[in-house]
What does this fold into?
Amino acid sequence: GVFAAGALVYTARNFALSRGTLEETRRSVELAEEGQVTDRYAKAIGQLGSKNIDVRIGVIYALERIARDSPRDHQTVMEVLAAFIRDHSHKQWPRPHHDGGEQVRSTRPDVQAALTVIGRRDSKQDIQRIDLTHASLRRASLSGANLAHANLAGADLSGADLGGADLTNADLTDAYLLGANLTGTNFRLAGLTGAILTDTNLTGANLADTDLTLANLASATLTRATYTSADLTGVKWPEGVS
It folds into this structure.
């Protein structure tokens, strides 16, 4: 009996020591991984200001991988990308032609890459709204993008493709969406006060519970669009619609 009791104590002690060793190993691995993520993030941020557009695009997708690998860094990465979009989206693209000819303006490729990353992020990791206020996103490709709760107040989305995008509870106050493709876009609970929606295609769009106060819908296509319980005060409707 004494021998058995001693064996049990010895086994229990070894088990406790093994658990402690495993815990220390696990923590060491976590710290190493955190250090690697920190190094990757620092290198990426250092290259985001590169003059080479291809390098910038590569950095943006590297930041996306960091956000996926490290949920604790998700919000920081999204804020960096949103700031990049706000700061760089107003620069002319395509660049002026050497002969001075005017070219149709569109969203710069690196800005589009940042938009793509934001549009397919894991929004469950969001702590704050995506801030794209007053960004110039002309002809941006945002089909099916997740922009729920995003702040797009004053943004220029003219000619953008937002077909099937999720803009639930987004702030689009005074946003400019002239000629945008909004087919099947979900605007439920969104704020569209004073938004310019002229010549847009809103076929099948969900505008339920939205605030459309003073919104301009002149020449918009509203086939199968729903705006149940929406605030329609002062809306400018397409000709023949009231």
Q: What stands out?
A: The chain has four helices and no strands. The CA atoms of residues 78 and 118 lie 7 Å apart. Residues 2-47 form the longest helix (46 residues).
